[in-house]
Amino acid sequence: MSPGRPRAAARAGQYLALLCYLVFLAFPLAWLVSTAFKPPRELGSLHPGWIPHHPTWENFRAALDEQPLLRSGLNSLLVAGSAAVLAIVLATPAAYATARRRSAVGRTVGGWIVVSQAFPFVLVIIPLFLVLKELRLIDALPGLVLVYVVWSLPFALWMLSGHVRALPRELEEAAAVDGAGRLRILVSIVLPLLAPGVAATFLFAFVTSWNEFFFALVLLKSPGKQTMPVVLTHFLGAEGAVDLGPLAAAALLATLPSLLLFALIQRRITSGLLSGAVKA
Amino acid sequence: VTTATATTGTRRTRRAHRPGDRSGLDRDTWFLLLPALVPILVLSVGPLLYGILLAFTDAQSGRTAATRFTGTLNFQDIAHDTLFWESFRIGLVWAAGVTAPQFLLALGLALLLNQELRLRWLARALAVVPWAMPEVVVGIMWRLVYHPDAGILNETLRDAHLIHSDVQWLSSLSVALPAVITVGVWAGMPQTTVTLLAGLQNVPRELHEAAAVDGAGAWRRFTTVTWPALRPVAAAITALQFIWNFNAFALVYVLTGGGPGGRTRLPMLFAYEEAFRYGQFGYAAAMGCVMVAVVAVLLAVFLHNRLKGDGA
Questions:
Q1: Cα angle at B251 between B185 and B267, to 5 degrees?
Q2: What are the E-state strand segments in chain B?
Q3: Chain A CB within 8 Å of residue B300 CB
């Protein structure tokens, strides 16, 4: 349509911009990986390079020795897994109700989700801390699970109701005409169709809890009970005295699970957010 | 604003239609909502109200004496707490400093990703990675980048002869806040990019083509076709990002711990220390209240302007 010269120039400009973005996004990641595989001598070098000359697994071994990484990984897995399961179980019926039935309660819940985003965590954590202390759930994984369930409910609800809206209503109406009860429609028609959305939401909730730091920092005290992000900060130790290699290795280990899971659901998150957003 | 009025409208008509309706349908809806409603009420609404209540008391951690109501004493103290207001100012600078460049960068990236470009898949994948990473890891990663001796940033700048002595990115009074803000921009870009990219799918393609046929240049097409369609999404994500950033904690906690000399002490870090280092629960809760109040006012103004301009 337009003359060739300016069009080619525009294309070149676009690629240049894209390249800048790629560099900006990728270079810290590349540096993290590079640091994780460097032997101590190269880490202490005055002119650190991008590619380790003598790549080593030593930092990973040191990281596992220095801090209870495996233990904390297990804690994180337990907490994030149970929180995500509970969040899904609690959110799915509500998501169906808010997506299919117009009710004041549903709208209030939706409004609350938005409003609750504005409150700083201090305002939530102090009373939660006092309540959980009464229940003897401080420094205990179940206490953290409770907090994470409530914390991931809003997003789970939001994503799931988006997925429900994407389902054709006709199937449910046909089943109702055939005399199926509401519960039966929900269990044998809606749930199977919703499975991919539920899976994506589950993984999203899992990753959010796996990554969470603030609540875990406040609620877990003994090293054996802490989750991975909290244990990672122990590597930083006193100022200056940071062992860079093991630090990078541990950080990399903590990221791999979330990265892998996120890769699985990347597409769904985009579409889930979109379908949630279109109606809202 | 439009949604809110529409909502109250439908509610009113529904009430008018069936006054006091308690039919099976409603009970079913209740039954479905209850499992989510109870935890939200008990562990989200309840604690928040309790937290606001605590702001009017002298609650402290590990104290044996009973907690007493002190009226607005905490708020009077906060009014004179220069350290808190300094932290508050830093919080606003940080939130605005992160949100604005992040939005512009994300918009540029979203527009690029919406084009048929090679390597788009790689950029799409990379653009989401920061979202998947634990904030603590993002902080650690950038500490490695910013490291004065072993970091890649100083090394690159040395090679390019842009600096002669090592820059203390995270511990120098003047550079620390900008350095931390850069990390904030990097870390928050995915959410904004993905949201804007989703919003771009709603831009009517025919309008775009029609404008191109009429000879409108790229910039003109953006301002007349793309931006009007993108505007509500842009306003929403900017508002959300501002809130999230203002309430940020983990990233800066790991990067600087609030230092040097409090130059990066965001209000959340300040309140965290007040509550869990010094045990001043009531005072910290009052700080939380002040933070919500100010953010709410700022947002109301921002969204009012945005949505009003949009509706016209």
A1: 95
A2: none
A3: no
